[in-house]
Write a structure and sequence with these properties.
five-stranded antiparallel β-sheet, globular, nine-stranded mixed β-sheet, 4 helices, hypothetical protein yedk fold, 205 residues
Length: 205
């Protein structure tokens, strides 16, 4: 599952490549973590939303705990109750430059980044909704891992190129599900020695 991605392009470039306008104050950090703001193309607008649908958990005595950010939506769960309404009515594009997976033994995992060769920006499938806890939130749609990824993780984001982006955002749920397959193109792989649990920026949400 994807728990970290990088988005280094300016909002104006996102709007130009995907079409649409930019909301005021839509700038976010270059690295995006669950529960933190990221940029989303929804309804023709580049918007800042929190990455992860809030899931309220309860403690041992039944008291509500701090909501958990559910930042990945599995393809085979999109028609279930938690995701169904957003999948049917609020599909979006998540612009990113690369996504990371943890690689290595427990306690010494490092970041391995995946991107599209020669592309500074591409899109992954997302769904979004409004929440009482954090305002507008989004989740990244995950599918089976491609050969370039499956040795590290068995799942990967649904990567959308060209007309696939229009089909995802405007097609029927059945047409959107057709796109939820492993990416068939080449991926650039950057295996780093950067610790997986690096410092996160202060959360503003």
């Amino acid at each position: 599952m994807c728990n970290l991605y990088r988005m280094t392009s300016a909002t104006a470039e996102i709007a130009r490549l995907f079409g649409g306008t930019v909301d005021a104050g839509a700038n976010v950090g270059a690295e995006v973590y669950p529960g933190y703001p990221g940029l989303v193309m929804a309804d023709g607008r580049v918007r800042s939303m929190i990455w992860g649908f809030p899931l309220t958990l309860k403690g041992k005595s039944g008291q509500p705990l701090k909501p958990k950010a559910v930042n990945n939506a599995r393809t085979d769960k999109l028609t279930s109750g938690f995701w169904r309404s957003s999948f049917e009515h609020r599909r979006c594009l998540i612009p990113l430059s690369a996504f990371a997976e943890a690689e290595g033994p427990p306690g010494a995992k490092t970041r391995t980044w995946f991107s599209l060769p020669g592309a500074s920006l591409f899109a992954c499938a997302g769904i979004w909704r409004e929440s009482a806890e954090w305002g507008a939130v989004y989740s990244m749609v995950m599918t089976d891992g491609s050969p370039a990824i499956e040795l590290i993780h068995d799942r990967m984001p649904v990567i959308l190129t060209g007309e696939m982006q229009h089909q995802w955002t405007t097609g029927t749920p059945e047409e959107a599900l057709e796109l939820c397959v492993p990416y068939a193109g080449n991926l650039a792989v950057d295996a780093t020695n950067q610790p997986w649990n690096a410092f996160k920026p202060p959360r503003n949400a």
